[in-house]
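[recover] target loaded
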């Protein structure tokens, strides 16, 4: 009986042991599979992207055409690095839940403001809603001298809006040293670079690189603009370059080569690569800033912030692809984005 009992027991345990082994093997395989895909599937990094709709036949960065409204339903799909990034929220840029840091840059080579233009700039800044922090700086020797860090206090900004005298603009120590080098510097030294806040720059410049000393050389190297655009993209900074050159330069012999339309073309190149909008009308600096600043307000008011969950960890710089559900519009956004909007130092 004992032998029989042992015999029966062993025959029943075989399938039970085999089943347990198969279960453990399957569990181990599933665990390995989870571990293999975990870096992608478990990463849910919120990433904010500033977008706007443009007519389908418009060129990238063209700010002169009327802007159609954009809704969440107009977005078919968003991919970051070839991977679908689910939409978490869709909110307006102005008067929305996100804080926008806007850095205003004035050119130390120019005398912007001598004819009351700074009062027009103040009116524009006053019109911006309470979710916009404003900073102020000068393009100087290839860097940016920040004279007012980001604040909601508009009066603090206005106190720093002081026009350059002719002597100051003509002083070699006040040379801007390459406006695109200044943009790269600003991106690397952005004050209070909180990833939770949106970032934008409004730069007044003629886009001319006067540091090129070669006679007859190319004063407007596209590589400078492209490098600046790439750095702005990496740091999730949206550029709004405003074309300005003094009608009467502080130094009569100062080079204006390539100004019409070369300087504007180079400023536009930054926008084509990094999104935003280039602001100019015709071939010369505007008599009044108000029309173009009004256009800028319309652009900002038409832009939205779409927040997605990226499947990558924070800090990865990847291609961005946004498809629209409509045939009559394109969705204008940066070509690339840094996951989590983490500034790169």
């Amino acid at each position: 009986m004992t032998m029989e009992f042992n015999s029966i027991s062993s025959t029943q345990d075989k399938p039970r042991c085999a089943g347990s082994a198969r279960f453990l093997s399957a569990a181990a395989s599933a665990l390995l599979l989870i571990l293999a895909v975990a870096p992608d599937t478990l990463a849910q990094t919120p990433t904010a992207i500033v977008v706007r709709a443009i007519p389908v036949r418009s060129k990238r960065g063209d700010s002169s055409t009327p802007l159609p409204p954009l809704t969440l339903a107009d977005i078919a799909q968003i991919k970051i690095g070839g991977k679908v990034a689910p939409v978490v929220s869709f909110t307006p840029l102005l008067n929305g839940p996100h804080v926008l840091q806007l850095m205003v840059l004035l050119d130390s080579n120019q005398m912007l403001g001598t004819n009351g233009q700074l009062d027009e700039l103040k009116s524009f800044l006053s019109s911006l809603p309470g979710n916009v922090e404003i900073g102020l700086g000068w393009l100087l020797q290839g860097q940016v001298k920040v004279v007012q860090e980001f604040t909601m206090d508009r009066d603090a900004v206005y106190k720093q809006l002081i026009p350059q005298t002719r002597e100051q603009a003509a002083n070699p120590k006040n040379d801007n040293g390459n406006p695109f080098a200044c943009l790269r510097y600003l991106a690397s030294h952005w004050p209070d670079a909180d990833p939770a806040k949106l970032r934008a720059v409004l730069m007044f410049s003629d886009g001319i690189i006067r540091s090129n000393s070669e006679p007859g050389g190319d004063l407007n190297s596209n590589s400078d603009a492209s490098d600046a655009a790439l750095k702005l993209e990496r740091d999730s900074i949206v550029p709004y370059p405003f074309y300005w050159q003094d009608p009467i330069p502080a130094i009569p012999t100062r080079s204006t080569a390539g100004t019409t339309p070369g300087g504007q073309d180079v400023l536009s190149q930054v926008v084509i690569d990094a999104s935003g909008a280039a602001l100019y009308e015709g071939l010369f600096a505007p008599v009044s800033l108000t029309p173009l600043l009004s256009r800028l307000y319309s652009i900002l008011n038409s832009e939205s912030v779409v927040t997605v969950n990226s499947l990558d960890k924070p800090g990865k710089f990847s291609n961005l692809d946004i498809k629209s559900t409509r045939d009559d519009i394109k969705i204008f956004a940066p070509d690339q984005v840094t996951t989590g909007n983490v500034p790169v130092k």
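[recover] notes: Residues 47 and 340 are 5 Å apart (CA to CA).
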